[in-house]
Amino acid sequence: MPGTLTAALVQKLTKVNRLDQNDILAIQQLPIHSKRVAAQHRFVRDGDRPSESCLIVDGFAFRSKLTPDGQRQILSLHIPGEIPDLQSLHLHVMDHDLTTLTECTLGFIKHDALRELIKMRPNVAAALWRETLVDAAIFREWIVNVGRRPARARMAHMLAELHERLALLGRTLNGSFELPITQIELADCLGLSVVHVNRTLQQLRQEGIVATERRTFHLLDQAKVEELGQFERIYLHQRPSI
Amino acid sequence: MPGTLTAALVQKLTKVNRLDQNDILAIQQLPIHSKRVAAQHRFVRDGDRPSESCLIVDGFAFRSKLTPDGQRQILSLHIPGEIPDLQSLHLHVMDHDLTTLTECTLGFIKHDALRELIKMRPNVAAALWRETLVDAAIFREWIVNVGRRPARARMAHMLAELHERLALLGRTLNGSFELPITQIELADCLGLSVVHVNRTLQQLRQEGIVATERRTFHLLDQAKVEELGQFERIYLHQRPSI
DNA sequence: CGAGTGGTTGATATCTTTCAACCCACGTGG
DNA sequence: CCACGTGGGTTGAAAGATATCAACCACTCG
């Protein structure tokens, strides 16, 4: 059935952009080669020159960089409906890795097809460009998080952001959401050591504002989490706003 | 004379993108309203809804965010030929501030004019989109810098990056470049305290790899600076690369 | 049952911040 | 012409945050 792969993408794009029926159809008719991929699979690598971009149909993925001395910094987490390496359309050499966090369904779309799409459908072009700009906005906030907030606030901010983004997809329930991430990965997201992440989480649990349970996070006191993390949702640019 | 304002922009864009004579002409004929602005002037503010974007014709500027508790994080430094708030074309509400570091000549370009330009000149559209993607690439490296590198390396990385970007404009000489920035601003760039920036700089000076003199930095041992900062220029995407 | 992964703990070392001065160059007003 | 105020840089001491190291525990999987 055409459109099942692009469902989350279309949902996301139409929430903020004015796309007409033909725009949507053009997206749904993109030739997509989908693949089921195991967790922790690095499917795009620093230095690669991809000829296709990759839509996350289902599951979580992340972007990361390795420093020459072997440290890892995770740059962003990605959820269904996002195209984390859309940039490779214009930047031909990858400057970071893309890895699945969980088992994922990925949809690979040839750059040629995307180029054709943005040539024929200016609305879609604008919407995709916009997506890459939101991406950058999230990076900026990530810089603030890592540069200026203490560990507890960093963690809180990240959880608040994830909650907000997942909420838009309808993947949250009463402040809870599924996110199968290890403390090692959290540490690499936040620029902290694993041990410190562990202690920070414990503190948040003791304060009763966060609970974790296997693969899901519960924000028990969402307002508190957002306040502690200084979370202000404007930077996500989720509203039409014009 | 048409084109004097856009000189640095055209220089930058044509270095990596294939623009024909008409593309260039279209850029040069953009209606630009230029203005001389004092140092430390915040000319775009968090929350604004700009109807124009701003080209740096001459001088330095930076983007920054303030946290609710009054801390500042500088997100990027900008040099002539860049349009730091090009994003406002698609993201209608600003999520950060834009401030001049030095006295600047700024060129304001109406969004309407830019929209017309990208509609008529797809090559230019692609080039501008690409610029915003390079912007994001620099943010990513900035995240790594702040998240994973100790103070000395952070400083070194930033200096190496600035040198590289200024070199492309021909504004470096034997590892030296002009950058009138205070230690307070450096601290906000690097996510450090002023005191620590001061000590870090002293250390770099004592090691003989960096010298500072009023408004100019000298990278006495450029290789050493790049190694210490783990600087790898690919992420700047300065080469055509296709 | 043993190995491996992810989580937890305590002790200690290191890095970075904070605080509180102080210095210096510069520009301004008396 | 000089006193003074100011911004930027520098310093030392102490406090605080985070990292590191080295175990140990719990659970899952083959």
Automatic annotation (TrEMBL), chains A, B:
Q: Which residues form the HTH crp-type domain?
A: 149-223
Pfam families referenced in this protein's UniProt entry, alphabetically: cNMP_binding, HTH_Crp_2
| Record has Transcription regulation as a keyword | yes
User: What CDD domains is this protein classified in?
Assistant: CAP_ED
Q: Does the keyword Phosphoprotein apply?
A: no
Keywords on record: DNA-binding, Transcription, Transcription regulation
Q: Which residues form a coiled coil?
A: none
Q: Which SMART domains match?
A: HTH_CRP
InterPro entries per the UniProt record, alphabetical: cNMP-bd_dom, cNMP-bd_dom_sf, HTH_CRP, RmlC-like_jellyroll, WH-like_DNA-bd_sf, WH_DNA-bd_sf
Q: What is this protein called?
A: Crp/Fnr family transcriptional regulator
